[in-house]
Amino acid sequence: MSGVAPPPGAATERRTSVVVVGGGQAGLSVSWHLVRDGVDHVVLEAATPGHEWADRRWDSFTLVTPNWHCRLPGYAYDGPEPDGFMTRDEVVAWLRAYPATFSPPVREHTAVTGLLPGADGGFTVSATGPDGPETWRADAVVVATGGYHLPVVPPWAPALDPAVTQLLSGDYRHPGQLPDGDVLVVGSGQSGTQIAEDLHLAGRGVHLALGDAPRVARTYRGRDTMTWLADMGLYDVPVTRYPGGLAAREKTNHYVTGRDGGRDIDLRRFAAEGMRLVGKVGGLLDGPGGHRLGVAPTVRASLDAADRVYNSICADIDRHVARAGLEAPPGSSYAPVWEPGAESTELDLAAAGITSVVWAIGYRPDYRWVGAPVFDGGGRPAHVRGMTAVPGLAFVGLPWLHTWGSGRFLGVAADAAHVAERLRAGLLDGAGIAGAAASSSRRLAG
């Protein structure tokens, strides 16, 4: 740069071999391998490493996977409760201690705004850092920003009665945050059911609009169900060998909780205790400013489907115990503790005393800043175990990137190792990256 300062507002240009976008557990895991192998790189993090665990989780949040699942490269949970469930603050502290174990080259408060592949290979990454705009030239880029960026909210939500407070699940913190009155939680995945439980335990009137999420037992036959599943190899099955194949990436995770040492989430029991369960929300029945919602009569079907999955997983564990000749307490089958009566097709928020709505339908990816042809019709990256058809461009930290464990602490280390090795090999041999991408392209096409 000849020592001449760039004009005001000009982007500072830097060069490195690999840019890792995102400093969460996935990006840091890739960096660990690159540091170990002596690969020049930088991790660009919009805030601070692992910040989303603090910013998008409620106060009573706990992991739903046992602590022993928390294994990153060179770093694993070593606390006193391997079968327990870390709280939000414990997860944040655990993650924040990780970088100190290997000193990754993280640039904090540096938000990536654009990514373009070069005509002759390599990439240009645009970002805004603490000192203003900056540009990075790199041979390879790893996108490690996850797949949950934009909240899924019905298009008619802004037309809802303005007297009703609306909150995204990622912005919910505690029951006292919401105005007095009943709360409608829309969505029965992991976040929706746990937030509904949090409100229910606080004595709030809760109405839960059910979706299609399955559920799972917290413990079964003397052990945590997720420990059984890990022993059975379920978290290691590649998505291509999973029933339904790549469609598994669209599936909702099973709901359960690690709160208070871990327990089932039984929506039927909640209903017996006074929680109101309603079917899928369809839309406003009145005009702008309205408060009458149409709901589908799907409560019974949703509960029955979730229970079938619950019992089928328990039956899988029974077969595993029998095949392996293991000693374990007797098995059982869940029997419903409550049944819905006649189902309404309308929910009048005002008549029900509902003063707030928590949208917990989910989040979808937003990769509009990635200017490379690597996405399917739904805006999701097309890849083979993280490697795209564009030479040198990879993704990590996505649900079902390779296995069921990919979106969890348990599986991210293996995915990061694979991507880092493929990129390292390509950097050592210029044809390597192109060759790996060509192979991925053929497999995607096939």
From TrEMBL:
InterPro entries given in the database record: Auxin_biosynth/cation_transpt, CHP04046_FMN-dependent, FAD/NAD-bd_sf
Oxidoreductase keyword on record: yes
This protein's UniProt keywords: Oxidoreductase
Oxidoreductase keyword on record: yes
Pfam family, one: Pyr_redox_3
Coiled coil location: none
Protein name: MSMEG_0569 family flavin-dependent oxidoreductase
Species this protein is from: Nocardioides lentus
